Amino acid sequence: MSGFRLETGGRVDRSQPVTFRFDGKAYQGFSGDTLASALLANGVMLFGRSFKYHRPRGLVAAGSEEPNALISVDRGPGRFTPNLRATGVEIHDGLKAFSQNRWPSLSMDFGAINDRLGMFFPAGFYNKTFMWPRSFWDRVYEPAIRKMAGLGDAPTAEDPDIYASTYAHCDLLIIGAGPAGIDAALGAMDTNKRIVLIDEQDELGGGALADPALWPWLERSVKALADAPNVTILTRTTAFGYYHDNFIGAVQRLTDHLPDVTHGSREKLWRIRAGEVVLAQGAIERPLVFDGNDTPGVMLSSAARVFANRYGVAVGKSVTLMASHDSGWHDVFTLAKAGIGIAAIIDVRESVDSALMREAERLGITFYLHHGVVGVNGRHGVTSVDICNYDDQRVHRVETDALLMAGGWTPSVHLWSHSKGSLKWRDDLGAYVPDVPNENVHCVGGCSGDWDFGKGTVIDVLPTPKDQSRIKAFVDYQNDVTAKDIKLAVREGFRSIEHIKRYTTNGMATDQGKTSNLNGLQIASSALNKPVPDIGLTSFRPPYTPQTFGALAGHAKGALFQPTRTTNIDSWAQAHGAVFELVAQWRRARYFPKAGEDMHAAVNRECVAVRSSVGIFDASTLGKIEVVGPDAAEFLNRMYTNPWKALEPGRCRYGLLLKEDGFITDDGVSARLAPDRFHLTTTTGGAARVLNMMEDYLQTEWPDLDVWLTSTTEQYAVIALQGPNARKLLEPLVEGIDLSAEAFPHMAIREGMICGIKTRLFRVSFTGELGFEINVPTAYGRFVWEQLMAHGAQYDITPYGTEAMHVLRAEKGFIIVGQDTDGTVTPFDAGLDWAVGKKKPDFVGKRSMARPDIVASGRKQLVGLLTDDPNVVLEEGAQIVADPKQPIPMTMIGHVTSSYWSETLGRSIAMALVAGGHDMVGDTLYIPMPGKTHTAKVSGTVFYDPEGARLHV
Amino acid sequence: MILIHCPYCDEKRPEIEFANAGQAHIARPLDPSGQNDAEWEDYLFIRANPRGRHHERWRHIHGCGRFFNAVRDTVTDKFETTYKAGEPRR
Q: Which of A28, A360, A480, A952 is most exposed, with the fewest beta carbons within 10 Å of its own?
């Protein structure tokens, strides 16, 4: 034996040495090693510092249940991954791993002072201590606690890796490829079922990988499965969650084990829908709870067998077993046969199977029955253990460098529980096992409680003659929860395991208590003197092991986070220097700055151009719905507040849409093209919502109406041409439409051609100027736009964006639904009662307009606000009060909804929702802002051209 | 992710194709103006919140676009049945 590497054995490839670094120091391992096995082979016992007490910690397990050995791996800039379990990190040349939660170094950690002060850190310590003063929490307590406690550092650079994702469907999904899972796959292989076999490790085999006697069988089986065309094998793949209807999420790790990190996708998310699921997740060995059970070198008995048989590594040169279960004896026999020295077997039971004793005697192993470990000596590694004879309470010392724990087994019911399968308690196992399934799933092997590890006894804490209050017997290693903490929680009145868990944080670390939950339950059960099933069981929730955000996000990040909708004219705006904003998912030009202009200057210029000559605006994002059918007018009459039946073909109407509760939900100008055909427009953000609402009424309330609704939002590019010169510019470009004021009045629609393209031409205005909205098939949007720009040069045509559009509409008091309304505004509140058909017997929302709260006085109503200082532009959202001298907290009577600088008027303008506002015109209101309280007079909402003279020209 | 049977498409499809549309079998009164305030409040706002069987509406919004009714168990989240709009309550 050189170091801790055994001369022979294991599945590592001794012909392929691998050099890697841990905390900067170079080590050698073999291909096939994990970071855990390779460091162990180099005699490294200390892997990290614990979460709360900063106690030195080593390996507990050999698999993904490992609670202690959390490390970080640095794969280059942006590729830093904290909190990986050393037992799951495959080594490769150049691997750089680091220990965590220590400063300045792993062996010399200042935070370890917490351990000396441990008596001051009982369960609920943080809840109890850091309550007062409240103001200290943000500035003092939290930053200090965050610095002291915690796991690895969160990476700060952007993740450059690519993450793939896919869907898969199969008849049979087998999760876990130990002997039970492989048997299930072999059994189904000759059917025509599509089978997927998943395992989290780098090779199939599970527990068989630590049992050389099974290797020939394993090799044959894996080859048979690999050759079967209907079997898909996914290794390095963790099924992390089990969702409804046999939908399983799994992450496949593709490149972390390779030296070249830049090749291909790092991970792949599998969303698998399975006809039938077989869970073969196995079982996890349970630690024993005794003083010093967290000393580096104290680990699970099964882990020692895995390190010896799979990796060819001895966990010590003189190993001691502390057992309450037969399986530990078998493990130790295996170690002895591999040439590892055995100091002693200690078993808490008074008698064990005579065959075990005979085998121990044959191998020359000393064993002590009815004994227990009561102390572990050594700080950074075991040097000896103190064992107590429970018959006479005498304690003596055993020299040893590793202590194995065999506390029995806990079936891995995690995914079973995700699927909401029920569990039943088995006293003989001291564990919950699967009972009634909730999906088409069953468990096989260890996770069903079916194993051949022998018998054991279930024990909560090893008895000890020591003062219970002075020992640290850990239950949850990762969250530093001791048996004492759980007993304290019970003494303080906690009864349900759900509460005990949250108070002590037992089982709440990143390992979700894989090794601690059942011990915690047993201790609580003893303390409460109630059987385990009576105190409940905490729920397992996805993920089974921590997964990266990258894998879950996949490609949905950056520009691909959500679709960006662009209009046909967007490319022109881009080329002409537009500044964009997102409106719903649409990218819209906000303003078109000329050289040296800021937003304010550009918007002022754009507004003036519209008022004085002509502006051009891309309104393609407006929602559009084609309403067709003999009952189209009747349908709209029932949906909108306005009357529609008398609207003549060729005319438009401003439509106001309420929800059934009487509040405004959308608006837009719509046109009647023919007796049975309407072209509706909606707000940009409301298009989908309005169509859904209309479909709802049409399908479920009035299925007798013969109407079809079709979204045409993306079928038309819409160009708004607004300003006194709009008609003059348009006239020479239009065919088949008489543009004269008499033939084509405000609020009318005509069909014809523009620049040779078929158009639906609206004469409408959202600016208060003479205006047209040109609808052309989307593909011709930019073409027509460019024609208008070219012909409009003589009028100094000016493209304007959404910001100028907002100012222009506000000058006219036109509301924006969702900005000047908030889902609690009625047509009357908004001053839109003129748009409500009083004579209509019914429309959506009509009855609600007579609801007691809606006819009550004091409702918030939309008014104009003119600041006393015309240069003050109020902040949108600012709160309004009637009396600025009232004591704080003041009574807020409303808020500013829209506020702009109006270059046309040479002053600021604003709209606001104010309680009883319609009766306050002329009153002065106050807007307290940091440093100054502004004053403003209530006005009407139309600030410009109230007679509408500019429209009707 | 739940699979939901669309009674119009007659297929089980993933829930991301569907949108919940609230409690089922609440018909809009034929003459809303004839409703007193209490009746109208009941229609507008009062909804069941059962533990167990719940009748609710769904729309196959990213499929055929049809609204239909379903019985779902609010404890297990399992769909007992789905049926077309207009069919009697199950």
A: A952
From-to residues of CATH 2.40.30.110 in chain A: 857-939
Give ranges for CATH 3.10.20.440 in chain A.
16-119
Cβ separation of B59 and A842 shorter than 8 Å? no
Select A590-808's CATH number: 3.40.91.80, 3.30.1360.120, 2.40.400.10, 3.40.50.2000: 3.30.1360.120
CB spacing of B33 vs A701 below 8 angstroms? no
Min Cα distance A433 → chain B (Å) is: 20
Mutate to test the interface with A, among B78, B80, B84, B87 (most CBs of A within 10 A): B78
Distances (CA, A) of A599 to A335, A802, A941: 76, 12, 25
Contact A232, A195 (CB under 8 A): yes
Strand (E) or helix (H) holding A423 = strand A423-426
- Nearest-Cα residue of chain A relative to residue B84: A700
How many contacts (CB atoms, under 8 Å) link A and B? 51
The CA R_g of chain B, rounded to the nearest whole Å, is 14
Are B37 and A692 within 8 A, CB to CB? no
How far apart CA A761 and CA A748 sit, in angstroms, is 8
Q: Which residue of A has its CA nearest to B32?
A: A847
Verify whether the Cβ–Cβ distance B28 to A701 is below 8 Å. yes
Q: Is the dihedral of CA B9, B11, B16, B20 positive or negative?
A: positive
Nearest to A869 by CA among A822, A937, A922: A937
Q: What is the pLDDT of residue A93?
A: 96
pLDDT computed for residue A451 by the predictor? 83
Mean pLDDT per 10-residue section of chain A, whose length is 953 residues: 82 97 96 98 92 90 95 92 96 95 73 66 63 63 60 87 96 98 97 97 96 97 98 98 97 94 90 98 97 96 98 97 97 96 98 97 97 95 96 96 97 96 92 95 94 89 89 94 94 91 92 93 94 87 94 92 95 98 95 97 98 98 98 97 95 97 96 98 95 97 97 98 98 97 97 98 97 98 98 98 98 96 96 94 96 94 98 97 94 97 98 97 96 96 95 90
Answer yes or no: do A245 and B37 touch at CB < 8 A: no
The whole-angstrom distance between B41's CA and the closest CA on chain A is 9
- pTM (predicted TM-score): 0.89
CATH fold for the domain made of A857-939: Elongation Factor Tu (Ef-tu); domain 3 (2.40.30)
ipTM above 0.95, yes or no: yes
Smallest CA–CA separation between A839 and chain B, in Å?
Answer: 12
Across A826-858, b (16+ Cβ under 10 Å) vs e yields bbbbbbbeebbbeebeebbbbbbbebeebeeee
Inter-chain touch B67–A699, beta carbons under 8 Å: yes
Q: Say yes or no for a CB contact (<8 Å) between A852 and B37.
A: yes
Q: What class has domain A16-119? A: alpha beta
Residue spans per domain, chain B: 3-27+37-84
Cα of B39 to nearest chain A Cα, Å: 11
**What architecture (CATH level 2) is domain A473-550?**
Orthogonal Bundle (1.10)
DSSP assignments along A536-548, one per residue: --PPP-S-SS---
Which CATH architecture best describes the domain B3-27+37-84? 2-Layer Sandwich (3.30)
Residues in B touching A271 (Cβ below 8 Å) = 1
Q: Kindly identify which residue of chain B lies nearest to residue A421, measuring between CA atoms.
A: B76
- Range(s) within chain A of domains with CATH label 1.10.10.1100: 473-550
Strand ranges, E, within chain B: 3-6, 11-14, 19-23, 53-59, 67-73, 79-84
Q: Which CATH architecture has domain A163-280?
A: 3-Layer(bba) Sandwich (3.50)
Numbered ranges of CATH 3.50.50.60 in chain A: 163-280
Q: Do B67 and A245 touch (CB under 8 A)?
A: no
CA distance A563 to A873: 35
- C-alpha distances (whole Å) from A123 to each of A504, A662, A741, A892 are 5, 54, 82, 45
